[in-house]
Design goal:
The structure is a homodimer. By secondary structure, chain A is of the alpha+beta class. Helix content of chain A is 35%, strand content 26%. Chain A contains 7 helices and 13 strands. In chain A, strand 5 (59-65) and strand 6 form a beta hairpin. The longest helix of chain A has 23 residues, at 124-146. Chain A starts with 5 loop residues before the first helix and ends in a 7-residue tail after the last helix. Chains A, B: Keywords: DNA-binding, Transcription, Transcription regulation. Chains A, B: One of its GO terms (biological process) is regulation of DNA-templated transcription.
């Protein structure tokens, strides 16, 4: 999930599509090193608590831990992008806990809430960046919700393929050649479905020559058929 | 969904838990009347586009329309609370569209992005309110995602009941008496499950005397059993 292709290949950008002006103020922040696998639980309750984190290098997963110990990756954020700490415990309900985990060795720069407010007051571009960051995160959460809620596993998979086709121009043969290096496990995680279901769906669609998944690409040979199956799920037998 | 009990009874507050300082600046905004069922598609692309809406009276549902015409209510916002327009089309992907629908006759006051930035510059309480609003919306989206992703219908229902028990103190008999006037359809919508599944789950748990649902309350007589079922779903036969 590391290039500007992410949006068109998985619909879950982890990079910032535009450079953020926060990088002009990094000297004001506080630097933290996180080794791969290390995590922080950051909750901002007061003005002086760390609130905004700029990722200088590495990669951070924003995760929810459930009461039963299972965890879900909500979003990934990479170098040049920022993430916000939890605010006043709003996100952690009952046993759920928000956690920020370093997927690689990472260096992050934290700004307190007061620092962010000071910067926003001085520099309107920071306000603009903040809005941008907030709405990119809304979009990620909404897309995942829309790709999950009230949809069966096969509907989730087909909805995702359909969206990928809609934002990628087909070649002259009407085939969509979509760069996508996700493993089947990563696709399953993205769509909140089981790995075995994901395997079965891919194999089934491959047998019908509707798609082909390689290590680097998804080839969609028949996007019309994907639409048909979406409208009438009973036609899918796998 | 109209009182401060919402949080403890459904986990989806539609009101603002604290009064917002935006109400001091309503004379600067632009007033709009929406009849019940009327909707707006608001996308903020420029400084002068409406961005923030304060609800003076009525109730607004924030909905996603899917390509297939089905729609999902993501959140509800009521008088005294605010909602943000879509920002630069981030939320609308492929066929998905964000829509703001009046559930009752409503009067809303819009502020442009420039106006919001001006207010935030002048009045730090507005910055603080904005952060509050953003994180309340994150929380709503995250809770719904956490209550849906990778969970079967019965797990969703039990997870929800478990959370309600955890934030409501039991009485001296260990019973949780939770104010909840949602219909079974509304519970189904909240958990993104089918109505028939919802009915079956409630009836099943009632037969075992674990819960009782009335028009105004959910009585949980045995929260321990709910925990057990959550850990071992195979024990649920309905």
């Amino acid at each position: 999930m590391g290039t500007p292709r992410d949006y068109s290949s998985i619909l879950m950008p982890s990079y910032s599509i535009r450079p953020l002006n926060f990088n002009q103020y990094l000297h004001l922040g506080k630097s933290h090193k996180l080794f791969q696998g290390e995590f922080i639980n950051s909750i901002c309750n007061n003005e002086e608590d760390p609130y905004l984190y700029y990722i200088l290098s590495g990669k951070i997963n924003i995760c929810f831990l459930r009461t039963d110990g299972s965890s879900l990756v909500i979003a990934t954020r990479e170098a040049g992008n920022v993430f916000q700490s939890e605010y006043r415990g709003f996100a952690s309900i009952a046993g759920d806990r928000l956690r920020f985990i370093a997927v690689e060795n990472s260096v992050i720069i934290s700004f307190t809430k007061k620092q962010l407010f000071d910067l926003m007051e001085q520099d309107r571009q920071i306000m603009d960046d903040f809005l941008y960051v907030v709405h990119m995160f809304y979009a990620t959460l909404c897309h995942r919700l829309m790709n999950t809620a009230c949809l069966s596993s096969s509907q989730r998979f087909l909805t995702w393929l359909d969206k990928l086709c809609r934002i990628n121009t087909p070649d002259r043969n009407g085939h969509h050649i979509i760069e996508c290096d996700l493993t089947q496990q990563q696709i399953a995680d993205l769509l909140f479905i089981h790995l075995t279901t994901c395997n079965r769906l891919i194999t089934g669609l491959e047998k019908e020559k509707i798609i082909k998944k390689t290590k680097t690409h998804i080839y969609v040979y028949n996007s019309k058929k994907i639409n048909e199956y979406l409208l009438d799920e009973s036609k899918i037998v796998y």
